[in-house]
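Team,

Forwarding the record for the chain on the shared tracking sheet. I've put the sequence and predicted structure together so nobody has to dig through attachments.
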Amino acid sequence: MEFDYDLFVLGAGSGGVRASRMSASYGAKVAVAESMFLGGTCVNVGCVPKKLFVYGSHFHEEFQDAKNYGWDVPSSSFDWPTLRDNKTLEINRLNGIYQNLLDNAGVTLYNEHACLLDPHTVQVGSATVTARYILIATGGWPVMPDIPGIEHAISSNEAFYLPEFPREVTVIGGGYIAVEFAGIFAGLGAKTTLLYRGEMFLRGFDDSIRAFVKDEIAKKGVDLVFETLASHIHKLDDGSMRLDLTNGATLTADTILCATGRSPKTQGIGLEAAGVALGDRGEVLVNEDYQTNVPNIFAIGDVTDRIQLTPVAIEEAMCLSSNLFTDQPKRRMDYQNIATAVFCQPNIGTVGLTEAEALADHAGDLDIYESQFKPMKHTISGREERTLLKMIVCRSTDQVLGIHMVGPDSGEIVQGLAVALVAGATKAQFDATVGIHPTAAEEFVTLRSVSRQA
């Protein structure tokens, strides 16, 4: 059967664009459909603008710290439209880069909504096209909790485009998005409350990290309210809002940001018509080769609701493109030792197993190393911010199983250490490595005393 395209991709986010480009480079005829914005969540309403906001929110501390270093810093004020609009200019620039990448690769871009009609046929705008293979790379979308008055709240999508900067903000949620935005709002000058239903936020991260970050965030003025839910949101006559809480208290806020999770974006794209099976959370179910139950339809990235990280979607795209359109040996991604960062303040960097995960397989055979210290910069600045380093080692094999850090540039540091974990480095090899002095990173190669055994 003749097809219009060898590969048709639904979604031009990080994974979809990479799969399109690489498949085209292997000689495939490729089209991609995107009805919103090129680059997906990461570029437009995720990693990139969020980190720009984190940079912006940190300057007030830099101005304060500079005084003890001898700088006469004049009084300063923050202008939200400048940060917001300069961020948007950068996003627009990146959108253009993605457009050029697709054009230069010879990929056909449809700026239209795409919907499957059957396993090989796609309705895209007013056109109907066929494809040998179809890739679902539509990503995820914020989930808003079922609370009376929730229509008065915003998601992280809208937070990047607020017309005015709020005086008081309540962030609902306990994942990394909620924690990051709480730091952003507080750093930019808003009175900020973080409201979470659980007893401790950042579920899934190492418990030492969670407890340490809790204390550090509280130092920066974020009011943390745990084991509490919002039961009702009321819009008041003056335009502000009141939150009724399950603990009987109330909160007022100009802005309420709900960061209570994201769900796969699988509605309205014809998956039912094509016979594609979904999981309980609406995720596209795939095997280890990203293949759905329909043999010619594949899915990668957040829409599969596995590891929601941009570099993961990109690597999945690389594997899939090679497997479909080259005669190279089959590629499969290794999901062990994937490093990640949380751009709260201070940052988190982590790779490998948490202590709880390590205990599941290595109980009684673990050496835990932990170190806390004041960053060198703050010995003069006077700021009461501390850094935490943690290393988890299997005693019998000496292999380093996990590395976790809270502190400035944690993501930058842990990215390098992730290479060591992927290579199977031992504690002895860390000990044999000469540190760079004076840095925080050198602490990872000078950990000598076991903090505890587990």
